[in-house]
Amino acid sequence: MPRIGVIGTGGWGKNHVRVLNELQALAAVCDMNKERADAFSKNFHVPGYSSLDEMLKKEKLDAVTICTPASTHFAMASKTLAAGLNTFVEKPMTTTVKDGESLIETAKSANRALTVGFIERFNPPITALKQMISEGKMGEPILLEFHRENRRGENISDVGIVKDASIHDIDTACWLFGEVPKVIYARVGVMYVPLEHEDFAAILLGFSGQKTAFLVTNWITPNRVRTLSAVFSGGVVDVDFVTQKTSIHEGAATTVPTRPFQEPLMLELREFVAAIEEKRQPLVTGRDGLNVTRIAEAVLASSSSGTPIYLG
Ligand SMILES: NC(=O)c1ccc[n+]([C@@H]2O[C@H](COP(=O)([O-])OP(=O)(O)OC[C@H]3O[C@@H](n4cnc5c(N)ncnc54)[C@H](O)[C@@H]3O)[C@@H](O)[C@H]2O)c1
């Protein structure tokens, strides 16, 4: 098993700690909040650090997962890759395209894996949908309509909803269609006025031919909505990301396949561990992380200019 350190043990990082511990790959934890680092160190019987530099100096690790706020990702991942560690960065990989390009170069020079936390690819109904598209069972995929809505987490302040949440659906749309969009049109805005960044977004992504994705994301809806309706030439597939229920509508018939619930984070981190062991590229690459940041920047540019943005 590779030895993996988790950096950031907050709301989400604590799940990385639990899952990597279950996979017997957890080797150390790091959080600038010393109390948190100590508590996780004690509970999981691994060394705990409040400084990344100290962890890198003292521990012999194969990899890290970075679960700190978005604005810290570039500096941290640059450091861990340069230190020769395979690096999993939570989404967004970086907050700017320039930083994303630089990180890919660093990973290449270090000859280490760089991957990003686009967890929905590991959500079983999405993995199954990708398989259905590859097999052509429902005909051509035409339209993907995503809804990702819930109240804002109090701790997210360094990026807006597009770079925090819409990016999950941007990545899923690109992955399912197997390409990046040619044109992007979006409206974003702020409902909760004290916020510095946008808290709702309506995004239209135009892919080749008729392929289109429509994404609605907001931090306003009180209940947690995470759905995808995929329209094919031969029917419609509805997915609930939370319950993992899939409904397949063909003509007048609806079928609901049964499959066991599986934790997407477990599947995602298992793939990272396997990629390290097999010395291969992970399923989600640094290039995917960069593409999504580029699209997110185009979303914001489209909204502020009121025009579609064509990607070269
Ligand atoms: N893939 C997903 O579904 C998913 C879900 C939630 C969050 N996330 C991502 O996980 C990351 C963390 O989000 P969160 O909600 O856990 O945030 P959080 O604020 O709850 O936790 C961040 C933790 O990082 C620590 N930290 C901050 N700067 C640090 C530094 N320089 N060195 C060491 N520790 C530092 C903080 O003390 C805190 O404990 C974000 O990138 C977020 O987008 C991903």
Topology:
Blueprint: E1 4-7, H1 13-22, E2 26-30, H2 34-44, E3 48-49, H3 52-58, E4 63-66, H4 73-82, E5 86-89, H5 97-110, E6 114-116, H6 124-135, E7 141-149, H7 161-177, E8 183-189, E9 200-206, E10 212-218, E11 225-232, E12 235-240, E13 246-250, E14 253-255, H8 264-277, H9 286-305, E15 309-310
Parallel strand pairs: 1-2, 1-4, 2-3, 4-5, 5-6, 7-10
Antiparallel strand pairs: 7-11, 8-9, 8-15, 9-10, 11-12, 12-13, 13-14
Bound molecules: nicotinamide-adenine-dinucleotide.
Nicotinamide-adenine-dinucleotide binds at residues 7-13, 30-33, 36, 52, 67-70, 72, 90-91, 117, 119, 155, 164.
Brief rundown of the structure:
It is built from 9 helices and 15 strands. It has 312 residues and is α/β, with parallel strands linked by helices.
SSE order, one letter for each helix or strand: EHEHEHEHEHEHEHEEEEEEEHHE
Indicate the overall shape. Answer: globular
Number of domains: 2
* Structural class label: alpha/beta
The CATH homologous superfamily of the largest domain: Dihydrodipicolinate Reductase, domain 2
Unreliable sequence segments: none
How far apart are the termini?
42 Å
User: Sheet bearing the most strands, described?
Assistant: 9 strands, mixed
If you compute it from the alpha carbons, what radius of gyration comes out, rounded to the nearest whole angstrom? 20 Å
Text of the CATH class of the largest domain: Alpha Beta
CATH architecture of the largest domain: 2-Layer Sandwich
The hetero molecules present are: nicotinamide-adenine-dinucleotide
Instruction: Output the strand order for the largest sheet.
Output: 14-13-12-11-7-10-9-8-15
- CATH fold descriptor of the largest domain: Dihydrodipicolinate Reductase, domain 2
Number of strands: 15
| Average pLDDT over all residues | 96
Number of helices: 9
Helical percentage: 25-40%
